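Summarise what follows for lecture notes:
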Amino acid sequence: MKKIFFIIGLTLLLSACNSLTPESPPMEKVVDDSVEEQAESPNLSTGIVAGSIEPSLKKIDSSSSNTFQYTLKNQTERKAVLLFPTTQLFDYEVHDELGKLLFTYSSGKEFIQTAKEIALQPAEEWSTSISLPNFEPGTYTLTVWSKAIENPYKQSTTFTVE
């Protein structure tokens, strides 16, 4: 009888403790460092779109090179912190015209399993350069995404190799 009460009590205790744990991380951690500034000038417009991190992907000017720049820009009015579960900050794939996967950046690579944060102030950007291997002539699609926990911020572009 004592064992039954002990098991029931232990189950209730563990159930109560489990309900106190957070369910998931926030979509993106936005830190408000400017509460006083906002109170002093509430109508100040900075031209920033509130509430979004904007990804972009563009080819770096060079007709013979397959080099691209992937950028994340903080378009919020507050500092945003991107959380990464490993040292891998981004990944990308290249597909041919028929949709066949030709190349994946992370394939065969290992990344350290340690959390990393990147803090972006309002209008601040984080960028990385992506140099692709040489491909046969044809049309290809490059898809790049962030490995941030909050959102992959996926971007794609089509390019031609002549």
